[in-house]
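Section 3.1: Structural characterization of target chains.
Under the original work plan, the team committed to producing a structural model for every single-chain target entering the pipeline before any wet-lab resources were allocated. The record below documents one such target. The sequence was received from the expression subgroup and is listed exactly as submitted; it comprises 474 residues.
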Amino acid sequence: MFDRSIVIALALFLTAEIASAAELGVPASASGGAHLTIYTNDFALVRDRRAIRLPAATAELAFTDVSGRLQPETALLEVIKGEALTVSEQTFSFDVLSPERLMEHAVGQEVGVVMVNPATGKETTERAKVLAVANGLVIEMNGKIHTGSPGRIVFDRVPEGVRSSPTLLMKARGTAKRETEVDLSYLTSGLSWRADYVAQYDPDADQMDLKAWATITNTTGMDFKSANIKLVAGDVNRTAPQPAPRVMRAMEMQMDAARAPMAKGVGAEGLVAYHIYSLPDATTLNDRESKQLALLDGQGIAVERDLVARSQPHFYTSSLRGQTQDNRADVQLTFTNNATAKLGVPLPAGTVRVYTRDASGAPQFLGEGNIDHTAEGSEVSLALGSDFDVPVLREQTNYVRASDNITLTTWRITVRNAKSKAVTVRVVEQIPGSWEITKETAAHTKLNAAEAEWALQVPAKGQAVLEYSVRTRF
């Protein structure tokens, strides 16, 4: 590859940039930073206020400081203060200045090659023609072909159309020489967020404290300084055409306030089919950076701890006699998302990491589980892993295929408890098709069309055995 230590003719570069700014009437950003509405689907709505002054009745505006992953078809320019503007054409220029792009634009043209005499330190400049750069630099200099550069390369000018940063160009018509304030809105990929929860669980009190962080990631190619941020939780369908920014901003005005033990200053509101969280303080999101911001802080949430042993649906479709399924009961924490449980807020989807304290008071990691977007009043269950002290042995003691679509099976489930106190284990059997329990040693509860549950009381240092028969029609 060519030498990356490239010297750009600085005076020409600055002259080109200044001439471009004067010709295009480049608007400047107003103070206060951009307004970002960030979704979980790797896109965001950016709204940025600018001050512009048309040099003539018709001019091309150049909006710099925009996302490198901007979707130009979603751009919207709205006049906030001043004379009306009409936009007839727009172009997104993302041919950004870099050593590679300078070399690519120089193919077929001459550049300067600066070489240093190692004995005297004197610099000399030779002219060379760039022949190729695709698979390494090839130049012609003094009638000879060179691969790679024998010295530093100096360019005569910045190539036309190449800019120092991504730029949105708009051809606008309006009143010349009048200052106008506008809002530039657009959708961009490269901004996303997720919820990360940290739970401190107290098994003696059956309570936990729950803190949520919003982890925001910026890969847009630009820094957002002092940005005002709103976060939207919900699954936005992007297969259909996206709402224009004007529509999305109208949607923001239809929010209903919700009850919330949010972090200090965070607002939670309904946004049509989604929920939106407004962060209280402006913050800076630098490119290629992830940042955690406090989102929710719930204290003393009532929690139920369950031990659950689950089967698999395929157990009922074939003969497993002579085989055993040996596993352990899963630990599950369950709480209700309501005001009684000291919550009652829409919870965004995310990962919950649960900690507790050992006998010395030191925090220890118990496990983690994922939660979906959870509305107020819904139940949340976290599966944290298997309980070492509660092994579960499942055996199929009989299998009869009564017809092509009917099977009769009998099962024995043995639950052991190595703990020094009794436990209750919920045995949940996932049974496919249409089914009926024909015989059982303990009464079951039908949770839904596909699950039956038995609550087994297992004594300390002992075991409990469940036997049942089921008729299944597929």
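Residues 304-337+378-473 form a domain with the Immunoglobulin-like fold (CATH 2.60.40).
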